[in-house]
């Protein structure tokens, strides 16, 4: 049986914020997209790669990071993550062998969902 490495408290040396998408009505009655903070957590944030994509003739930079936090069942791909003023889209959320100790997320910066 394979087990993951234990989660060391000292490795969670960054603070990240999770936000949830919502809508509100503006003064004209039109719907407006909002993002509300639902959770702030200590995390490990490690860069994976950087690449340049070409979209509609324009270059778009994309950075991928791995973010590890203690397990929380409310963290899903429907949320987004902010770290040091940057907004990351959560691409995947993996539970640590379904043991509910930590979550490992693959996140991208650059190509946003909103």
How would you characterize this protein structure?
- This protein has 114 residues and is an all-beta fold.
- It has one domain (9-109): Thrombin, subunit H (Beta Barrel).
- It has strands at 14-25, 31-55, 58-70, 79-83, 86-95, 102-109.
- It has a six-stranded antiparallel beta barrel with strand order 1-2-3-6-5-4.
- It is globular.
- The mean pLDDT is 84.
Query: Order of helices and strands, N to C?
Result: EEEEEE
Provide the CATH topology: Thrombin, subunit H
CATH superfamily: Bacteriophage SPP1 head-tail adaptor protein
Separation of the first and last Cα atoms: 41 Å
Roughly how many Å is the radius of gyration?
Answer: 16 Å
Which short descriptors sum up this protein?
114 residues, Thrombin, subunit H, 6 strands, 6-stranded antiparallel β-barrel, mainly beta, 0% helix
